[in-house]
Amino acid sequence: MPEEDLVSQESSETWLDIPDAVWEPKPDFMETPSVELIREIKAHIRDTGEPWTWRGHTHTKPPKGSRIYYAGEFDIPDKYTEAGRFSPCPCCSPNNRKFGNGKIAWFPDEKVIRLIGPTCFKSLDAHMHAEAVADYEIRKQQTRDRDYILDRLDLIPGWLADCDSLAEIARGTDEFFPKLSNSLEAIGRGRFFENLRSGEMKVWEKVREPYVDKDGSLKSRSKSVQVHYGTIDGHEALAPNRGSCVKVIEDAKAKLKSLGAFSPEYIAGGAHTVKADIADQIAKAVKTLKRARDKVGAEVRFLRRENTNRLRNWGRHKGAPFQFDLVVDKGIMNVSAAAGVYPIPIPEAVRGVIIPKFDGL
Q1: What is the Cβ-side half-sphere exposure of residue 360, based on CA atoms within 13 angstroms?
Q2: Tens of pLDDT along 266-313?
Q3: Is a pLDDT exceeding 50 seen at residue 1?
Q4: Do 127 and 74 fall within a single domain?
Q5: Same domain, 31 and 142
Q6: Which residues form a coiled coil (predicted)?
Q7: What is the pLDDT of residue 3?
Q8: Does one domain contain both 66 and 104?
Q9: Which pairs with CB-CB distance under 8 Å and at least 24 residues apart come from 279-282?
Q10: Is residue 229 part of a domain?
Q11: 143 lies in the same domain as 242
Q12: Are 179 and 144 found together in one domain?
């Protein structure tokens, strides 16, 4: 470099003399920077306004092809930046003040940490920078999701009460639907659900179709085809292999109860991994309960009068695969066919109920 250029740089307002120790590589970081280490870095920047003087910072330019992992972001306090005391960047401006907010970048191949400008690594490897930013944004969203869940621990008592309500309804559906399924399968000789598997009811109708006779004349003939008749809500409740939700609900309730025992103080002071684990378990338990809620809710909707009337009208249609009648009277569903009458009591637990929502998450 020409001497006049060097003098010009060193005399500029942005020039910084970087101590030799800062240039020395510090391959001390074998693993992803921990939350505690990130806090230390941010505290140093907050107290000094000098990212480059943090004890673990390596100020050399990253080698070509370096893998990069963005572990966090930081801002130099306004009292420093307003005075023009910005930070140099090892990627693109090692001796000149350049940025006021930056990224904590871990380089796993070198096992070093560099505190760099927000987009400075892009000038060295745009593709690697874009991938690292995308990965960091995903992790930030996961952290936001975790904190969102942990901020709602006070909802757990309400969710536990919802579990009790949902389990009671599920016991009622367990009592009713196997009996109804058995009755309909008896009428359909083991093929009833097979004809309702998709929730669609079909009937046979005769239609006329044209054809060309041997003598070349155009004629028509009768043909039986299945056509759409209607749909049924909650048809899966009639499956012969229908599963119960009660144990699923009770297990999820037990998990929520144990997680709700953690105090807010314990969680607030917990390590990142502890918080993430608790939030993950809460999210999984509530997700499980919502799946059970949807299944039980669909089964309860099956019992709505307009729905059972559609099933009844299908069974009475002359083109239905099976002939049967279905009448609900005084809390009893009577299914009748040539083979006999099947009275099935409808449990109080499933009559006119409101399905718990598990709101808040």
Answers
A1: 16
A2: 988 888 889 999 999 999 999 999 999 999 999 999 999 999 999 999
A3: no
A4: yes
A5: yes
A6: 275-306
A7: 40
A8: yes
A9: 279/145, 279/146, 279/147, 279/149, 279/150, 280/146, 281/255, 282/149, 282/150, 282/153, 282/156, 282/256, 282/361
A10: no
A11: no
A12: no
Same domain, 68 and 178: no
- Residue 260 reports pLDDT greater than 60: yes
Residue 224 forms part of a structural domain: no
The dihedral formed by the CA atoms of 264, 265, 270 and 274, expressed in degrees to the nearest 10: -20
Q: Is residue 358 part of a domain?
A: no
Q: How many domains does the chain have?
A: 2
Which residue segment(s) compose the domain that 185 sits in? 172-196+235-350
